[in-house]
Amino acid sequence: MMENGLGKCCSALACVVGLLASPAAWAQDPAPPPADPGSAAPPAETTAPAPPAEPTATAPAADAGTMGTTAPVPPAPGTAEPVGEPKAEESPIASWFRFDADNLGLQLWAGAAHQLGPISLSSDIYITPLLGTAEFDIGPAFTAGPVTINPMIGFAFNFQTQQPAALVAPQLFTYIDVKPVYFESWILGSFSSMFNESIQNYFYSRDFLLFYPTDDFGIGPHLELTIDANEVVTAVDDPTTVGVDEGVVDDTGLSSLQLGGVIGLNYGTGNKLLLYLGYETQKESQLNDKLAGRFTFIHNF
């Protein structure tokens, strides 16, 4: 009797083991729990597959005038970046374009900043079509919080006379942006007598302060001055002095001092307008006690 009972138990145990090893038994088990977030394999589905989704309309490409203003299109299912693999970051080059219009005529600028390790290297090209000169400037920019200091050195060439025009150094540009106050200062020297003795060397400074009562409108004082650094005697046969009294000596010292005000306007995405109006206080200046002014447009890319 005990042997028959033991035989029946062994036979029942063999049947259970056989069922557990059978694929048919696994097919009747419920689906495994969903995978953890970020898992590459989706959970197994036990229901019938859903019908294919209707095709979605392709988002129209943004035109040049609305770039960056359209809503981002979400990625299609299955195309998202894998979790844990960060996207490679690009290092954009900060660049800008600018034009000024004042008593020197139209002036064109273009510049950029390249990050070289811990140093930001700034450079720009400055063109004065009326005078026929073009200038290239370069130097490092140092930033500490809201303060940026940018010393530079430049060289100018005159394409009308096909001769070097000036060594523009030293140059020091200072920018302080502590909202709602913005301060900007230019200090530079231009030395031309090494190439042409009849051209004045000078030191120049431009300084202004803007207070922004709103995010898009600023107003404040503006000062400009020019100091002549050498005496120049007008040559009789110098073609660049046509219309100037011959033999006149240009003395050293303060030759221009302009006092006035400036308005700053944020003018759309990346754009800024600066409107300066002042008064020339020096009779020896080219403006001869007249109003001075400048219109500036800047675009940051």
Please explain how this structure is put together.
It contains 2 helices and 14 strands. The chain has a domain at 94-300: Porin (Beta Barrel). The protein has 301 residues and is mainly beta. A hairpin with a 2-residue loop joins strand 6 and strand 7 (181-191). The strands form 2 sheets. Strands 1-2-3-4-5-6-7-8-9-12-13-14 form a 12-stranded antiparallel barrel. A two-stranded antiparallel ribbon has the order 10-11. The longest helix has 20 residues, at 2-21. It is 8% helix and 48% strand. Residues 1-85 have low confidence and may be disordered.
What kind of sheet is the major sheet?
12 strands, antiparallel, barrel
- List low-pLDDT spans: 1-85
CATH level 3 topology of the domain at 94-300: Porin
Q: Supply the number of helical segments.
A: 2
CATH architecture of the domain at 94-300: Beta Barrel
Strand content: over 45%
Mean pLDDT over the full residue set: 75
The topology string of helices and strands comes to HHEEEEEEEEEEEEEE
Secondary-structure-based class equals mainly beta
Task: Summarize the amount of helix as a percent range.
Answer: under 10%
Strand order of the largest sheet: 1-2-3-4-5-6-7-8-9-12-13-14
How would you sum up the global shape?
globular
The CATH C-level name of the domain at 94-300 is Mainly Beta
Give the C-alpha Rg. 37 Å
Number of separate strands: 14
> How widely separated are the two ends?
96 Å
Identify the CATH homologous superfamily of the domain at 94-300.
monomeric porin ompg
Provide keyphrases for this structure.
disordered N terminus, Porin, 301 residues, 2 helices, 48% strand, 14 strands, two-stranded antiparallel ribbon, mainly beta, 12-stranded antiparallel barrel
